[in-house]
Amino acid sequence: MSVSSIGEIAWVLGIVAWYFIRRPYERRAKRVRVVSHRRSTSEKLGLAAALLGLAIIPAFYVATGIPEGADHPARLWAVVLGAVIFCLAMWVFRRTHKELGRNWSITLEIRDKHELIRRGPYALVRHPMYTSFLLMGVGQAFLLPNWVAGLAGLAGFAVLFLLRVDKEERMMMEMFGSEYRDYMADTKRIIPYIY
Ligand SMILES: C[S@@+](CC[C@H](N)C(=O)[O-])C[C@H]1O[C@@H](n2cnc3c(N)ncnc32)[C@H](O)[C@@H]1O
Predict the structure, then answer these.
(1) Counting atoms of ligand 1 from 1, which one is nearest the CA of 165?
(2) Which domain holds residue 61?
(3) Range 110-140 burial, b when 16+ CB lie within 10 A, else e
């Protein structure tokens, strides 16, 4: 089996893990009432960019090999590193879902009896789920030996993050007031102690 096939299989397994981690929370979210939301065109754009970059473009590449002209040589060290980073991403992704629990939403929403979570990964950074998306994007870049499909994840993450994070923090400040302001003073956004 070629090194590029190993990288592609590792990416597919990572995405399957992503789906099974998220599915129960999506189901549960349907049963918890939304009390306010910030759904907007830019929010839809961000979600679409993340879906395109982290799932659709790489899946299309794995299935078809297109765009062939953007291929670069696959290296075993890169695939191993990519697999380790993707596993770390899934571990963080799972932890964030477990901690958010009934407070989780795919978009910007406040749920009935919404609680501000500050434990687990949320003690280190305010947006650890976005940290896991960033790690997924980096893992994807190492796993797929193609400039377009490999880097699409980081581009998709960047669009979602930039379009959303200020609005999300504003929404949380409106909901939790000084409690969220204190939380902001104590934590970074996505990279512990740095940003
Ligand atoms: C897709 S989740 C992402 C959560 C967070 N930004 C992260 O990256 O881990 C988005 C929803 O989580 C909720 N949320 C964000 N931070 C939260 C926190 N610290 N505690 C509880 N809910 C939070 C908000 O209601 C938001 O609509």
Answers:
(1) 6
(2) 3-186
(3) bbeebeebeeebbeebbbbbbbbbbbbbbbb
Nearest CA residue ID for atom 5, ligand 1: 127
Task: Please tell me the residue having the least CA distance from ligand 1 atom 11.
Answer: 105
16: domain CATH number? 1.20.120.1630
ipTM over 0.95: yes
Q: How many domains does the chain have?
A: 1
Q: Is residue 193 part of a domain?
A: no
pLDDT tens figures, 104-117: 999 999 999 999 99
pLDDT tens-digit map of 165-185 = 999 999 999 999 999 999 999
CB 108 within 8 A of CB 173: no
